[in-house]
Design a protein that fits this description.
Helices cover 74% and strands 0% of the residues. The chain has 28 helices and no strands. The longest helix is centred in the first third of the chain and has 15 residues, at 3-17. It is elongated, with a radius of gyration of 31 Å. The chain starts with a helix and ends with a helix.
Length: 486
Amino acid sequence: MSILGTYWNILVNCFRHLNRVGFGLSVLGKLLKLGLQPDLVTFSTLINGLCAAGKLAQALRLFDDMVRGGCQPNLIIYNTIVNGLCKVGDNTRAIRLLRTMAERGCAPDIVTYNNIIDGLCKDKHVTEALELFSEMRGKDIPPNVVTYTSLIHARCNLGQWEEVTRLLNEMVVNNCKPNVVTWNILVDACCKEGSISEAQDIVERMMKQGVEPNIVTFSSLMDAYCLQGKIGKAREAFNSITSKGFAPDVFSYNILINGYCKAKRMNETVELFHEMAQNGVIPHIVSYTTLIGGMPWDGRLVVAQQLFKEMRANGLVPDMVTYSALLDCLCKHGHIHEALEIFRVMQSSGLDPGIIHYNILIHVLCQIGQLKVASKLFCALKIKGLDPDVCTYNIMIKGLCKGGLQDEAYELFGKMEVDRCVPNSISYNTMIQGFLQNRDLLKTAQVLHEMIKKGFSANISTATMVMDLLCIDSTGEFYRAIVQKQ
């Protein structure tokens, strides 16, 4: 390309760095109108910009136009397209392009193979990834730390620890040292299996090998400690982030906030939330939602409502989980009318309530004896295109039994399997308790035997009620009903 063309390429590149790839495409159009032929640099810049902006379809069209125009892609362009395809999970097309490269005389390199191997591993196609791994070595392309890390990650996800060990040993033999990403994968895998002591051993090993743990390492440890209820240890791991010279990010804070909420230590949760803001870390939707979800345990309804208003004022849009957390909080505090109002706000905001939101409302309405309103919501589910789940049925059955409407409850219980919703242990126990409260001995025996036949057992409440009834059954009617059903 001429000097003039070089200037055009500089302009295209500037637009790419400004994330204005559309303007870059306009420059391409201008080039063609001026009779100038775009070169590899032009196409490479534009394709890279389109892929970075998530516009893979446009990048592929430009790639095809380039080939049709007689401009053969170079390795950089091929790798950009392969990477884009793998990121969207189109590994089949990426492999096809890998084969095309060779046919067109452009030899793939380690980057090409790494992109596809990583994509295959993420989609759990480990066998195909290993085939490419063998292929690249057969072409004298030595695997690097990125290659091994992708394979190790896949093996960890599948719990194949012997293979993980084999790959790590192979890395040592090939003088390929694990990096912080490799170590973090191992730490996270151990944490997810609940093996925190092993995770700690791995952290010590990585440090001995001169690899410093980072914020990801400590976040994995924090998450594991929180899951085991070891909040003190989680806080120590959190403090290690700053002592190692890192600044905790919103994800680290969210892990600890969630841990404190689950431990019902709301004072520390609120303090941590304020600390987060003081340290310049902007809370996002998960931070607010987690905190709102923890408020029912501590009776802080007003705080939950303030948090909801604050997040909206900060430009954050509540999602399905946020609304379910607030609805649950309002209902547990007995603020039914406000809960119904939030339900309407949710609908008007363009979010269609899911079965969880309906379950929360139906549950509280049944608790306060508003069975007609609960039944109305239940019947509206099908109209809204939602199928009641086993939880929905159990809530309604319990509500009807509590209201003395055992026959209606039993009718609903019978509808469950018709609606392809299989009753669970709670369904059977709830129905049996309803009949026991009403002293309907025959139906109690009938459902009791059906429950046993299905492989479920009576819970403590049901067993206690049955034993109490047997003790006061002076006529032996209940005993005979049970024996006759055998």
